[in-house]
Structure to design on (977 residues):
């Protein structure tokens, strides 16, 4: 069998597809075939809902069960045009005559039967009188003789499917599920490509391929297409054509979908059923008038019209741009088109537009997201009038930039593609059932809000629908409203008000789907920002470019030569990839004794950079860029309305992730805010001290964007460093730090525990080396608990620690001394002495842990009245696995803690509001690229030489915990086991 002939058979038989298209949630129907040939359908409650007999005798007496399909069509008498169509293709003719060769039978997968949807001569007469087809000279097709070979091939492919399928099986066959697709690989038109933007230096229409190599030409062209490619009719150049059209149609079954919860009106709405109501199965534009005429080699289903192939969604979108009610929306959607190599087309050498090695199809990245093998997608597009009205509305941020009747198209099309993506992607729906009137209440965006604002009922939705375009692989619904309008309004606030970097970070999840490590972007942020009032402090693009963000991973090193800051600028994604963020980053040397300024500072080598096309999950410094942007969003979003932040007695607030924000000034006319890093710098004698000041305010749908001149950042100091560097906390730090060094003691006292437990359960800090190391700042250790939380440490000063020790609080030294003195003659520690030593150790450990309290609490000197709330501590009662609690009271310019003694202990004002961040890196500080987890911490010194007591039975005398062996045993059971 020669190649072309073999390919013809493959195309005719192997690639005419049956596709299952289940409803999103369907009733569980049961199909029972009885011995008399009757098929009964039952729903989940076993109620009989349909009886459909399978005829044992053909209803058309001219069709004989013992004759072939071809002979029966001849016998019918008025199918001459359809027979001419069959005779145009030798392989198809032999299949209809049941004369397939052994090779053809094997190539068909041992299927030698056909199910045929046959139109009669009257149907063809109507087709030739009314169709939109033209011949090679542009004349309307009015006769069979004018049809090209490609057009004839399209029509024959629309008329049959392989196999032996009755109309009953089209109703209920589990492999069909109510509708199937018929495809044709015939092409009447060719397409040329019109790139929206392309890189300079090369004309995309004359870009030459390498004629002597097997290059992926589509991939090569994509490198030059910066911002989408439109499909256009016209003369196809030698190298830039693409196969954008794959025609076809669908078979719809009114009964099936009504069984599964859709109404007849729903199917009429999308053109899948007739208005007057019919139980006929609809095949594109035709109905079966006489089903199940059995033949020797298949079934004949006689239809009332010629089934005409419809364009696929890609071509339907292109046609909408050339003219119609939604050309503006179609232009936006096609900016997400790209080229793809498709080897299925390589057989048609006459259709290949390069050297035959790389056939191209036009795809759309947004459509790719919703297309599955089991669903029929839908696209909902706004009319030109609706989109224009939205753009020209006075509450649209574009209004501030002079948008008008003359420039609205250019201004819209100038928006970066990455800005439009989160807005436009919601127009693409996974299933056509998502856009049906009866399902309108479920037509919501990913953030949960109604897709069409102001359209509140199914009846209003039907009135808003202006057109339904049926394609071979889905439908397009054109509405007199703008889907997902609020998202675009929010995006424009960032983009047009100088916050493109922040906007790109908010929408980065569009390139991060499926990446668990890179998921803290838009899905979480924007869902919270939609459902709650918020204030977002947006660093301007100019501030992020000039001052950048200090790299916390580099600051973790003690080597100041390694310190870096990164300048961030908006960038366009010009290649199709994953884990991309539309931001470019470039590193500079950081020295806080100099004022940051990228205009005068010298950048580091090109190795320290990341562009928009780079994978930010694991490529070079992409993870660092991702971390900086994640921190920026975490630091700058407050889930409170801006008015609740102004003119109040409070100065301290928490961002959505728990990072402290200090509002130095917050009046109606001026806002000055600082993060932990700004607080640190402003307290030092350094050149880089600065505040973040108000530039202007932009309004979003549920919140406010406060634009500031430069970004806030969290502190780079962790708890270990804060305690170690503060002389007033030295005794508390020494006691906590000593637990890590007492490995021999822990092993002696708790030898039944695992090594991990000895390192984590019985310490405050996690070791920075060894099997259970957690990487923090160089030569420091991270706190062992409250990972990824915000919490507060109420730290006893040295005077408070001296008081506790005087009241019997043990230290590691005193416990080691007790153990040494208690050894027997064999150097063993007796059990009763071990229990007393354990009680001593657990007293010290739980004393320290009780000072770590969940949530962040601040001393607000100007706050006249406050609240009392209960907080949990890091100290656990092992007998019931409950955390011990404390009460926090704020107000009257004070912050106080009530401990187990039922007495309040006040915070010392000059040791209050010390900010720390326990950041765990993915590697040691010299090689770290991102943060695995982080806790935001507030430290306060306790006033009046006092401490917090975790167990009231030890009030005034800690030795009660181990005074007798029985007391020690009871204490260990409560706090250790």
């Amino acid at each position: 069998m020669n190649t072309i002939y073999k390919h013809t058979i493959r195309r005719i038989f192997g690639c005419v597809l049956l596709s299952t298209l289940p409803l999103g949630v369907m009733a569980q129907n049961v199909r029972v075939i009885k011995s008399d040939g009757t098929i009964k359908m039952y729903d989940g409650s076993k109620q009989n809902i349909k009886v459909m007999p399978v005829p044992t005798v053909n209803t058309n007496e001219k069709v004989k069960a013992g004759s072939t399909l071809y002979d029966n069509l001849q016998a019918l008498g008025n199918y001459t045009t359809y027979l001419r169509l069959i005779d145009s293709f030798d392989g198809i003719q032999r299949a209809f005559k049941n004369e397939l060769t052994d090779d053809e039978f094997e190539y068909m997968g041992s299927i030698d039967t056909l199910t045929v949807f046959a139109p009669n001569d009257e149907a063809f007469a109507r087709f030739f009188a009314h169709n939109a087809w033209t011949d090679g000279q542009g004349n309307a097709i009015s006769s069979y003789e004018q049809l090209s070979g490609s057009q004839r091939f399209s029509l024959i492919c629309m008329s049959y499917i392989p196999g032996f399928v009755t109309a009953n099986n089209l109703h209920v066959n589990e492999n069909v599920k109510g509708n199937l697709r018929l495809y044709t690989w015939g092409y009447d038109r060719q397409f040329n490509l019109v790139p929206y933007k392309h890189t300079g230096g090369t004309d995309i229409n004359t870009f030459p391929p390498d004629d002597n190599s097997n290059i992926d030409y589509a991939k090569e062209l994509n490198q030059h297409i910066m911002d989408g490619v439109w499909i256009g009719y016209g003369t196809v150049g030698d190298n830039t054509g693409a196969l954008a059209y794959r025609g076809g149609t669908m078979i719809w079954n009114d009964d099936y979908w009504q069984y599964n919860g859709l109404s007849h009106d729903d199917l009429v709405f999308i053109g899948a059923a007739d208005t007057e109501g019919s139980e006929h199965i609809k095949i594109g534009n035709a109905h079966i008038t006489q089903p199940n005429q059995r033949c020797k080699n298949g079934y004949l289903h006689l239809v009332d019209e010629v089934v005409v192939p419809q364009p696929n969604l890609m071509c339907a979108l292109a046609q909408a741009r050339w003219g119609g009610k939604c050309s503006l929306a179609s232009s936006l959607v096609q900016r997400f088109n790209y080229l793809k190599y498709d080897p299925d087309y390589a057989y048609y050498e006459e259709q290949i537009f390069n050297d035959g090695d790389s056939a191209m199809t036009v795809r759309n990245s947004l459509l790719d997201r919703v297309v599955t093998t089991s669903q029929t997608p839908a696209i909902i597009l706004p009319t030109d009038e609706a989109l224009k009205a939205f753009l020209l509305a006075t509450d649209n941020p574009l209004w501030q930039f002079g948008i008008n009747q003359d420039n609205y198209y250019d201004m819209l099309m100038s928006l970066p593609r990455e800005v439009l993506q989160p807005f436009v992607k919601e127009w693409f729906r996974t299933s056509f059932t998502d856009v049906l009137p009866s399902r309108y209440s479920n037509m919501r965006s990913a953030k949960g809000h109604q897709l069409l604002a102001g359209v509140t009922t199914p009846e209003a939705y039907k009135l808003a629908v202006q057109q339904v375009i049926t394609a071979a692989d889905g439908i397009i619904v054109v509405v007199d409203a703008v889907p997902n309008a609020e998202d675009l309004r929010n995006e424009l606030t960032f983009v047009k008000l100088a916050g493109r970097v922040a906007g790109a970070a908010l929408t980065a999840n569009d390139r991060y789907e499926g990446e668990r490590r890179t998921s803290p972007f838009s899905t979480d942020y924007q869902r919270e920002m939609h459902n709650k009032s918020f204030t977002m402090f947006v660093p301007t693009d100019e501030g992020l470019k000039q001052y950048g963000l200090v790299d916390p991973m580099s600051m973790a090193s003690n080597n100041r030569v390694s310190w870096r800051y990164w300048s961030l600028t908006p960038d366009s994604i010009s290649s199709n990839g994953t884990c991309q963020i539309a931001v470019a980053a470039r590193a500079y040397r950081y020295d806080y004794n100099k004022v940051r300024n990228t205009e005068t500072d010298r950048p580091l080598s090109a190795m320290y950079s990341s562009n928009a096309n780079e994978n930010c999950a694991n490529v070079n410094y992409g993870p660092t860029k991702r971390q900086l942007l994640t921190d920026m969003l975490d630091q700058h979003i407050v889930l409170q309305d801006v008015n609740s932040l102004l003119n109040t007695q409070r100065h301290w607030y928490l961002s959505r992730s728990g990072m402290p924000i200090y509002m130095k000034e917050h009046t109606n006319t001026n806002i000055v805010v600082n993060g932990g890093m700004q607080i640190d710098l402003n307290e030092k004698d350094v050149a880089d001290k600065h505040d973040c000041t108000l530039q202007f305010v932009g309004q979003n749908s549920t919140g406010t964007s406060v634009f500031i001149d430069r970004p806030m950042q969290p502190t780079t100091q962790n708890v270990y460093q804060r305690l170690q560097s503060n002389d007033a906390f030295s005794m508390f730090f020494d006691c906590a730090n000593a637990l890590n060094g007492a490995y021999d003691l822990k092993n002696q006292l708790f030898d039944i525990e695992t090594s991990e437990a000895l390192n984590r359960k019985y310490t405050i800090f996690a070791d920075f080396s060894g099997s259970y190391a957690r990487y923090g700042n160089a030569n420091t250790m991270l706190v062992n608990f409250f990972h990824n939380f915000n919490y507060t440490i109420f730290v006893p000063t040295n005077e408070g620690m001296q008081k506790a020790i005087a009241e019997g609080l043990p230290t590691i030294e005193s416990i080691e001394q007790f153990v040494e003195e208690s050894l027997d003659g064999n150097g063993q520690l007796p059990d009763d002495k071990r229990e007393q030593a354990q009680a001593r150790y657990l007293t010290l450990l739980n004393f320290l842990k009780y000072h770590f309290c969940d949530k962040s609490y601040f001393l607000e000197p100007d706050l006249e009245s406050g609240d009392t709330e209960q907080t949990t501590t890091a100290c656990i009662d092992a007998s019931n696995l409950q955390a011990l609690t404390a009460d926090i009271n704020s107000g009257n310019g004070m912050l106080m803690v009530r401990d187990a003694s039922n007495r309040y202990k006040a915070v010392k004002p000059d040791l209050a509001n010390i900010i720390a961040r326990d950041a765990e890196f993915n590697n040691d500080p010299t090689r770290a690229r991102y943060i695995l987890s982080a806790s935001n911490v507030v430290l306060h010194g306790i006033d009046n030489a006092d401490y917090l007591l975790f167990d009231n039975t030890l009030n005034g005398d800690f030795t009660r915990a181990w005074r007798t062996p029985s007391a020690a045993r009871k204490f260990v059971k409560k706090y250790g086991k």
Summary: The radius of gyration is 37 Å. The longest strand covers residues 931-942. Residues 178 and 253 are 5 Å apart (CA to CA).
